[in-house]
Amino acid sequence: MIARLLVGIVRLLVGAYPQWIGSQPSVARRIYFANHASHLDTLALWAALPPSLRRHTRPVAAKDYWSRGIRALVARRGLHAVLIDRQRGAGDGDPLQPLHEALDAGDSLILFPEGTRNAEALPLPFKSGLYHLAERHPDVELVAVYLDNARRSLPKGSLLPVPLICTVRFGAAVALREGESKAAFLERARDAVVELA
């Protein structure tokens, strides 16, 4: 019920129209990784997926932000998000463990490797989480995604979205190459998102 309501609101406000450029919808386990400019990003990407894929695709979100009030309801009951702790201390274990568990359970993920929202059209350098996930889960497809116009629809600091059409471009899968360094992989993954801009 909450999920359908969220999709309806997003479609009404920004469209979230999918363009499958380098891949097609698939039930294969995937990590959809995208640029991050707005709180609409997660909802737009998730709403652009076919309903059959949405049920098994979980956005990754910051626990400190998405675990209170209405945001907690949206994250847990609407999106079935995987919450990660950004406020961890040394010795707290693998910060990616909840993501590994979700992938091992057969779910796909939505991930924003920049780690924070960015007001620019092109993504910031990617943090290392995507590399570690690719290394541990070589059988999971990594699909580049570019969200066009979300940053203008709900810029950082805005409370209400501006109704602009947002397009969600799904590119080709990117795989970690044998012996590829973390820096080379992350740059290549970022380039895959940039190419969709």
How would you describe the overall organization of this protein?
With 197 residues, the chain is an alpha/beta fold. It has a single domain (2-86, 94-194), classed as Glycerol-3-phosphate (1)-acyltransferase (3-Layer(aba) Sandwich), CATH 3.40.1130. It has helices spanning 2-14, 40-48, 51-54, 63-66, 69-78, 97-104, 129-136, 150-153, 182-194, and strands at 17-20, 30-34, 57-62, 82-84, 108-111, 141-148, 167-174. It has a seven-stranded mixed β-sheet, sandwiched between helices. It starts with a helix and ends with a helix. 39% of the residues are buried.
The outline comes out as: globular
Poorly predicted spans: none
- Structural class by secondary-structure content: alpha/beta
- On the 0 to 100 scale, the average pLDDT is 87
Physical arrangement of strands within the biggest beta sheet: 1-7-6-2-5-3-4
- Helix-strand pattern: HEEHHEHHEHEHEHEH
- Which bin fits the share of residues in helices? 25-40%
Indicate how many domains the architecture comprises. 1
What percentage of amino acids are in beta strands?
15-25%
Q: What would the CATH topology be?
A: Glycerol-3-phosphate (1)-acyltransferase
Question: How many strands?
Answer: 7
What is the overall number of helices?
Answer: 9
Q: So what's the CATH class? A: Alpha Beta
Task: State the end-to-end distance.
Answer: 33 Å
Which homologous superfamily in CATH is the superfamily?
A: Glycerol-3-phosphate (1)-acyltransferase
User: Which CATH architecture?
Assistant: 3-Layer(aba) Sandwich
Radius of gyration: 16 Å
